[in-house]
Design goal:
The complex is a heterodimer. By secondary structure, chain A is of the alpha+beta class. In chain A, about 15% of the residues lie in helices and about 55% in strands. In chain B, helix 3 packs antiparallel against helix 4 and helix 4 packs antiparallel against helix 6. The chains are: A alpha+beta, B mainly alpha.
Chain lengths: ~180, ~280
């Protein structure tokens, strides 16, 4: 009886010993929001995002964050207005968290649930597809977060009394490296 | 035989206990490190986020009325669903999940700055007023340009000079005065809007600001030349000298003003006919 208990305990304990956390670091990135107005099409880009991923016990947790003021639309006046509209000084970071099974990390298309903290609000996006391309030890991830102004309670900026479109999709291009 | 069995049992027990002890120790260390990480996390230094459920993804229940997004060219077909996180969380944050403190941002980058936010809010408010008044100013400005020729004496030197009617002249003066008043009120909201430290002008705003050096002096000179021209006409003289440049100054000023408006709106994509 004791032997069986000991064997059972061994079976439980050994996988714990066998586990080794895989960690990833964001090597470079490009986050681009697109803003649309009947008179303007604007892209704001940030290359200042930082990220880290940890895979443990078959689950991967990733965190990516970028300073809101790092987004550059090519016009300082517009960027300051964006900062004001998104409460970017009060909530200076855009933070994305995601968790997905480690087994999916080898798929060419990864569907992830995203939690985005931005402008003092948190929004969740379910089943967002990201393309994965592996080059050597680098992994390139690309996709689009279907963000909207209303998700973050952002008053839509207007020009000539016409507000921008509610949709502000964010194109994500990232290169990850194992740590 | 009995001794060998006993050895096996004792050895197995020892091995199992060692494994358990090591694994428990590892788990405890991991927990401790995680707690320390959380304690030191920079997240504690950033502004509190109103949403109370900002911690974890997997815990969010499926949306009761999830919105299926329309497919876009750069997205997978209609698979993304989104949900405002106003729902209860059911699971805890994973112990191994990285925190904002792990990413290496400086406290300056992550700390809330209420003063700058207040400056941004005031700046935006003043510039919105500036924009609105600036657009309104174009109406009397264009009207003043249109009525200009009717307020001008006609006829060459040596010929009969036709003086403008008093009504035309007064109307032109009134429009010019209204334009000047609105212009300088508009300028006030631009000049006294708070500056955000460390931000260098970039993009279309640079041309918009550069043109201030044309239409700004123009809006001072044009009325002064207009007053001089008015005095000469009232004296029965044909407008002459520097006053004769009143019209030219007005056109240059209006052109610079119009260019400044277009510049700050550039590039313009005319898509009003497209469905939203």
């Amino acid at each position: 009886m004791n032997k069986r208990i000991l064997f059972a305990l061994l079976l439980v304990a050994l996988p714990v010993l066998a586990q080794s956390d895989a960690q990833w670091v964001l090597e470079q990135s490009s986050l681009t929001y697109h803003m649309s107005h009947p008179m303007h099409e604007v892209n704001g880009v940030s290359h200042a995002a930082k990220g880290k991923g940890v895979c443990h016990a078959g689950q991967c947790d990733f965190l990516i964050a970028a300073p809101v003021k790092s987004f550059d639309s090519g016009d300082s006046n517009r960027d300051l207005h964006m900062m004001e509209a998104t409460r970017g000084a009060q909530f200076p970071m855009a933070i994305v968290r995601t968790r997905f099974p480690e087994a999916t990390t080898t798929d060419t298309t990864i569907y992830v649930d995203l939690e985005v903290q931005f402008a003092g609000q948190t929004a969740q996006y379910k089943h967002v597809p990201f393309q994965r391309v592996s080059q050597g030890n680098q992994v390139q991830i690309s996709g689009t977060v279907p963000a909207t102004c209303s998700d973050f309670k952002i008053d839509r900026p207007s020009f000539l009394t016409v507000p921008i479109k509610n949709e502000i999709p964010v194109r994500v291009e990232m290169t990850w490296l194992p740590m | 035989m009995v001794r060998i069995d006993a050895w096996k049992t004792v050895g197995l027990e020892t091995l199992a206990l060692c494994c358990i002890l090591i694994s428990v120790t590892r788990l405890s260390i991991a927990q401790g490190v995680q707690n320390a990480t959380v304690m030191q996390s920079v997240e504690s230094t950033i502004a509190p986020i109103p949403s109370s459920d900002s911690a974890d993804l997997p815990s969010a229940p499926e949306p009761a009325s999830a919105i299926a997004l329309k497919s876009r060219a750069d997205q997978a077909p209609a698979t993304a669903q989104k949900q405002q996180s106003q729902t209860d969380q059911q699971q805890q944050k994973p112990e191994t999940a990285p925190s904002l403190g792990d990413l290496g941002f400086t406290p300056e980058q992550t700390q809330a700055d209420a003063r700058t936010q207040a400056l941004l809010n005031k700046r935006t408010h003043m510039l919105k007023v500036h924009q609105t008044l600036g657009l309104i100013t174009t109406i009397p400005m264009v009207a003043t340009l249109i009525t200009g020729p009717q307020a001008k004496a006609k006829g060459k030197n040596g010929q009969t000079v036709t003086e403008p009617t008093a009504a035309n002249l007064d109307f032109h003066i009134a429009l010019g005065s209204l334009t000047t008043g609105l212009y300088f009120t508009t300028a006030y909201f631009s000049m006294f809007a708070p500056q955000i430290p460390g931000v260098k002008p970039k993009g279309a705003i640079r041309l918009h600001r550069a043109l201030e050096w044309v239409h700004g002096p123009g809006m001072i000179v044009t009325p002064l030349l207009g007053i001089a021209a008015y005095k000469q006409e009232n004296a029965g003289e044909k407008v002459h000298g520097i006053a004769s440049y009143h019209g030219t100054a007005a056109y240059v000023t209006a052109a610079a003003y119009g260019t400044a408006i277009v510049a700050v709106s550039w590039p313009i994509h005319w898509k009003f006919w497209e469905k939203q």
